[in-house]
Amino acid sequence: MTRVYNDAGEHIPVTVLRLENCQVVAQRTEDKNGYTAVQLGAGTSKVKNTSKAMRGNFAAASVEPKAKLAEFRVSADNLIEVGSEIVASHFVAGQLVDVTGTTQGKGFAGAIKRHNFGGLRATHGVSVSHRSHGSTGNNQDPGKVWKGKRMAGHMGQTRVTTQNLEVVSTDEARGLILVKGAVPGSKGAWILVRDAVKSGAPETAPRPAGVRAAEAK
User: Fold this and answer.
1) Are strands 37-42 and 176-180 parallel, antiparallel or unpaired?
2) Where does the chain cross the membrane (predicted)?
3) What's this model's pTM, rounded to 2 decimal places?
4) Cα–Cα distance between 126 and 196 in angstroms, integer?
5) For residue 24, what are the domain limits?
């Protein structure tokens, strides 16, 4: 994360996201697959670390082996040619996006840290259990602890989507996208950025996508 300043001189906290050679690897069509989507690949992977089946897929698309693959549902008229490279200008300033990633793992955490409990009183009979979660059930009826009861346990390292984050600016030359606020995941982690499901893409966004055409072989 870092910060930038707008025209009014206001400080805006942003997360810098980098597109790493993001290319269309395959298309999914209604006739062949029963749905319409594009498969994108990002990063690079050594050939020796890529299975033979995936080598064939990458070879058919005439792209280098990718470290990460993901599918994005699109409409039939917004399919992108295989081999095209998605660039940062696919997103426009002011656009809202949903960001999906795996949160940082915190290990085994208590109820106060994990669920923001208030804890027990500092005095008046409370001894050695100030940070405990308190009662977990009733008496003989129902005579059990209900599933989903908020208690101590493993915290973090879960797939989370943060919705409606604003794109502050983009840098196509360096492949950077600046998003206002924080996104789930640690530094260097892979994340998915898509148009906000609750607001969609703005009219100024490129259609079908902001791409750099595949180079002729």
Assistant:
1) unpaired
2) none
3) 0.86
4) 47
5) 20-86
Peptide bond into 142 cis (omega under 30): yes
One domain for residues 81 and 165: no
63 contacts 25 by C-beta, under 8 angstroms: yes
Is the Cβ–Cβ distance between 102 and 160 less than 8 Å? yes
Q: Are 69 and 44 in contact (CB under 8 A)?
A: no
Amino acid making up residue 35: Y
Place of tokens 């470290």: 67
The amino acid occupying position 77 is D
**Domain boundary at 36, 67, 86, which?**
86
53: nearest Cα among 62, 41, 65: 65
Pair 107, 94 in one domain: yes
pLDDT in tens, 142-194: 899 999 999 999 999 999 999 999 999 999 999 999 999 999 999 999 999 99
Matching residue, tokens 């290319």: 23
